[in-house]
Structure prediction request, 121 residues.
Amino acid sequence: MLSDGKEQDRRHSTRSHLRRYLRVFDGSSSRVIGHVTEITTQGLMLVSKESLSIHEEYRLRMKPGESISESGELIFRATCKWCRKDTGSPQFIAGFLVHDLSDRGRETIEKLVAEFGVLGQ
Prediction:
């Protein structure tokens, strides 16, 4: 289900655009869901080749590398809040709300943003 693109921006934290290509996988398989374009400890935006289901909870996995995370990966739950077709592209853009992020997960995202992030809006 695609949103109409008129949803109100409800973010309360400063977004960081990543200068690094970081793929996001389905947490239960090796299927690539998309790649991160913006991230905070509260949510993320990603670009995907397929439309993602709004209001569906996903188990997501990222591999930021051992320099960012001791295990080399981060697994967390997030709900897709919106998804729309990217203008002038065959891809889709989706926004996710992160749930119950562990302290280690929070540290991993903060480290990722500190090393590869560019502050956004």
